[in-house]
Structure formats: structure tokens, C-alpha cells
Amino acid sequence: MNAVKPPILIIDDDEVDRYVLKRLIKEAKLELTIFEKNDGQEALDFLNDYENNRQEYPEEFPPILIFLDINMPRINGIQFLEEFSKLRTKVDDIQSCVVMMFSSSEREEEKAIIMAHDFVKGYLVKGTFKAQELKEQVLSVIDAPVSDI
Q1: pLDDT score recorded for residue 3
Q2: Residue 45: helix, strand or coil by DSSP?
Q3: Residues with Cβ < 8 Å from 101, sequence gap 6 or more?
Q4: Is the pTM of this model over 0.70?
Q5: Are 135 and 100 in contact (CB under 8 A)?
Q6: Membrane-spanning residues where (predicted)?
Q7: Of 72, 87, 124, 141, which residue is most buried, by most CB within 10 angstroms?
Q8: Pairing mode, if any, of strands 65-68 and 7-11?
Q9: Is 55 exposed, middle or buried (0-12, 13-18, 19+ CB in 10 A)?
Q10: Is-contact 101 81, C-beta < 8 A?
Q11: Phi, psi of 60 (to 5 degrees)
């Protein structure tokens, strides 16, 4: 019997950055179900469609971890966090979902705003980490034994 792969959501408008993150996940030998969205609005629409997604992906929805970029069109990462915070109060299953920032921004004022959300559990700067560090970060925030992944 196959174990369920923990689901994650990658929100980034840059296809290359999403590809790089997926390669690092593969290199880290993390077996995850990966959903991808191009911006914060697409991601909110996806998460707000809770009932349909639970039916379509009964074992893989909602995601337990979201990798979130900051600089995106329509709804950026900071705006997404505000809306996601509201959504968490409405949908019980989403309350356990955590966010890991995945951005090229190293601006301290942005980090302070972002890390003020208790569900944000890490901040990875694009291009500055290796697969092993990613694996350690992912395993530190998702509640899954190493042998299950």
C-alpha cells in the first residue's frame, strides 16, 4: 500500500523558481504531492474552493505546507498572508497549514511583517540554500516522521 505523500502548495509567479524548488525537493528525496499556483489570488481561489478540492483530492487537500513568494502580481505574498489569516478562521482543516516564505527579498521590514504571522514557520532566500537544508526546514514544519517521506 502506498503512503500518502504530504501535500504542499508552491505560490510563485516565476516558473523557473518553481522548477528550481521542485528540483531541490526531488534532490532532497522528499516525496510530496505538489500543487502550484502563479500568484496569491490563484492560491486563495484554490484554497477557498475547499469543498470541491476535498472531493477531487481527498487525500491531498488541503496542503500542509505553503511555499510563498513575496513579489507577485495581483496579490503579493504579504497580501496573501492577510487573506490566508482570515481563511484560517473560517476553515478548520486549513488552520494546521503552515507557510514557509520562499523569496529573493532580504528586506528586514518585509521579514518583520511576514514573521509576525504565527503560521509562518520559516524564511528561505532563493538561491542561498541546498537540498539538505530544504529537507531539514520542511521536516521541521510538517508533522511527519522521516521514514514516511
Answers
A1: 66
A2: helix
A3: 67, 68, 69, 70, 77, 111, 114, 120, 122, 123, 124
A4: yes
A5: no
A6: none
A7: 72
A8: parallel
A9: exposed
A10: no
A11: -115, 5
> Domain segments of the chain: what residues?
20-142
* Unique residue bearing C-alpha cell 528586506: 107
Task: Report which of 102, 48, 49 is spatially closest to residue 77, judged by C-alpha positions.
Answer: 102
| Closest among 57, 49, 56 to 8, alpha carbons compared | 57
> Are 36 and 10 spatial neighbours (Cβ–Cβ below 8 Å)?
yes
Within 10 angstroms of residue 123's Cβ, the number of other Cβ atoms is 19
Could you give the CA distance from residue 36 to residue 18 in angstroms, rounded to a whole number? 8
* 25-60 pLDDT, tens digit each: 999 999 999 999 999 999 999 999 999 999 999 989
Q: Does domain 20-142 have CATH number 3.30.470.10?
A: no
